């Protein structure tokens, strides 16, 4: 990560294409007006932005999630994931058909991170994203059991490591009043 100064903490957003990473990056920067969200386009390669939050400075790496990019990140892992302080991995809970692909990519990242880094220096935040307030009305097929099952599968992967992690249910429509799930 040559583009980051080491005074700033490096926060990296990863997940499948269309999962909501760029929208989350806007929210973290405080750009929360609705048109901003609606206008997101698939990220080409990656976006790097800096934000100041309280007395810390963060550099946010927002990795484009399309398949070709994902392959490139895994192949040249250290170029993207070295020096990272926090990983935010984003699952799109509304993209039922791709839970397996999302878990697969998550597992690859977690295993490589564990191999290459001091586990105690990295915090992993897992967002169960697009958990919109009206989810049960608009997508009744996404039941609590399905979400619990996804959570269990996530835990199976990360519990094999010593990473400190937290799982949150998030939505851009809740302005990131994150709910920690158990
Ligand atoms: N319903 C819903 N839609 C969301 C939410 N967050 C993002 N979106 C929408 O999901 C779509 C994709 O969002 P992006 O932020 O561009 O996704 P991305 O993960 O950056 O995608 P790539 O750049 O291709 O990797 C956009 O239409 C967003 O408006 C959310 O919490 N709920
Ligand atoms: Mg994006």
Question: First CA to last CA: what distance?
Answer: 33 Å
CATH domain class name: Alpha Beta
If helices are DSSP runs of H or I spanning 4 or more residues, what is the number of helices? 7
The CATH topology: Rossmann fold
Number of strands: 7
Compute the gyration radius: what is it? Answer: 16 Å
Strand order of the largest sheet: 2-3-1-4-5-6-7
Describe this structure in words.
With 182 residues, this protein is α/β, with parallel strands linked by helices. It has a single domain (9-180), classed as Rossmann fold (3-Layer(aba) Sandwich), CATH 3.40.50.300. The protein is built from seven helices and seven strands; from the N terminus they run βααββααβαβααββ. It has helices at 21-28, 34-38, 67-75, 77-81, 99-116, 135-138, 144-158, and strands at residues 9-15, 46-53, 56-63, 86-92, 123-129, 164-169, 179-180. The protein has a seven-stranded mixed β-sheet with strand order 2-3-1-4-5-6-7. β4, α5 and β5 form a beta-alpha-beta unit. The termini are far apart. The mean pLDDT is 88. The chain binds guanosine-5'-triphosphate and magnesium ion. Magnesium ion binds at residues 21-22, 43, 62, 64. The site of guanosine-5'-triphosphate (GTP) has 22 residues, from α1 and α2.
